[in-house]
Amino acid sequence: MRFSVNIPNFGDFADARTVARVATAAEEAGWDGLFLWDHVVHSKEQRRGQPFGDPWMLMTAAALATSRIKLGPLVTPVARRRPEQLARQVATLDGLSGGRVIFGAGLGGPIDDEFGSFGDTTDPKVLAERLDEGLDLLAAYWSGERVDHAGKHYTATAVELLPATVQRPRPPVWIAGYWPRKAPMRRAARWDGAVPLFLTANHGEAPPVEELRDLVGFLEQQRTDRSTPYDVIVGGISPADPAAARALIEPLAEAGATWWDERQLLGGSDFYRLEPVLRRIEQGPPTLG
Length: 289
Fold this sequence. Notes:
Blueprint: E1 2-7, H1 16-29, E2 33-36, H2 55-65, E3 70-73, E4 76-77, H3 83-97, E5 103-106, H4 111-114, H5 124-142, E6 147-150, E7 155-159, E8 173-179, H6 182-189, E9 193-198, H7 209-222, E10 231-236, H8 242-254, E11 259-262, H9 274-282
Parallel strand pairs: 1-2, 1-11, 2-3, 4-5, 5-8, 8-9, 9-10, 10-11
Antiparallel strand pairs: 6-7
Helix pairs in contact: 1-2, 1-9, 2-3, 3-5, 6-7
């Protein structure tokens, strides 16, 4: 199992220098990855008055400050981006980091705030269509080969976006969604990893082992290519006591989780403040037996 740190792109972490400091601390403490949110307003009434940073600028700062840890968004709402622009951002970061990008994608939310506030559709079906079509286009763009595409939502005519990504054939793509909703996990099974939240365990709360086991079984049934590695990312707050941390995380690893993503609870303010997050990072990742 590998271990990552998860931070939002607002509050203290809207500053690229702060994110670079966090990334450096995470690498020095032995963490394997640093993942950032990709929001414009999040829940706009709750975040009113808070600064936001562009996640790609923040991840660029993190890439320049490190040499080993994986980096990426958890998660980018592809339907809120132009695929050609997003493809350039990911490829540029992948080149800058020496092939360390993991691309997390999802429907995005809260939909009314993140989409409706700017006059975009709030129809989940349409957003899901744009997500699926956009993901396919991203994979094509990252190849560096000529792309011709005439889809329901996007068009590309004889374009080549160079350079291609450093990672071949492309960076890993992880897909987020809520379990036991099956549609997002069917989507996840077509790519390289699943980042589930659970209706019984939201951000910052470790999922019940049995529910994770059910999800992993569903993903295995849905996957058509089992010859390549596949990641399942779960997370929460790991206990400070090593034995308690092992008791929480090891059953999840046995059930099929491959990453533990250290997250703060959404309640309160600790999750967007540097001091508590940095304090946890410097303690290092959990140690499993």
